[in-house]
Amino acid sequence: MVDQWREIEAEWQGGGTFIGKNAKGGTVQIGTLNDLPGVSPMELILVGLAGCTGLDIVDILEKKRQPLTALSVKVRGKRSEEHPKIYKEIEVTYLVWGEGIDPKAVERSIHLSEEKYCSVSAMLRKAADIRSTYKILKPGDSFE
Fold first, then answer.
1. Does residue 142 form part of some domain?
2. Of 8, 75, 82, 139, which is the most buried if we count CB atoms within 10 A?
3. What is the pairing mode between strands 87-98 and 68-79?
4. 64 and 105 share a domain?
């Protein structure tokens, strides 16, 4: 049964800055603190999507015995003009590195993550159009 509560705490640091903490001690800076830029709350949503789907992709590709050497998930979102300015469009780009990666395995992994496993994607899909693309690169290749 998955009815366990998740808890975080956000402590105000002054100005427009908070430090978010989870029960295990992980932290994230929201806003600028001592001239060090942080992440905005809406950017955190995109980070959550990238991390959620990225973990799925790695797990699925490893189970499919694909020779994955690196993965980068780039996410960008377009917000509505009116308040509360939610995301209306989100684009996810998966950059997959490995020698001999099967494109069908990547496509299936993305589909499974987006449609079955990634809870962040499932929530965001209720409000936003989410589109995804991928590119397979050889180890050592860069993506611009």
1. no
2. 75
3. antiparallel
4. yes
pTM: 0.91
Q: Could you tell me the pLDDT band of residue 72, with boundaries at 50, 70 and 90?
A: very high
DSSP 140: T
DSSP state of 36: B
pLDDT digits (tens, 9 = 90+) for 106-117: 999 999 999 999
Two structure tokens written together for 125: 């899909």
Q: Which residue has the tokens 């955190």?
A: 44
pLDDT at 144 over 90: no
State how many domains the chain has. 2
Residue ranges of the alpha helices (H) in the chain?
41-63, 103-112, 119-125
The 8 Å CB, 24+ separation contacts for 13-22 are none
pLDDT in tens, 85-108: 999 999 999 999 999 999 999 999
Q: What are phi and psi of 26, to 5 degrees?
A: -70, 145
Q: Compute CA distances 36 → 21, 25, 30, 33, whole Å.
A: 18, 20, 10, 5
List the domain range (segments joined by +) for residue 31.
1-39
> Which residues, in sequence order, are CB contacts of 49 under 8 Å at separation 6+?
75, 90, 92, 118, 120, 121, 124
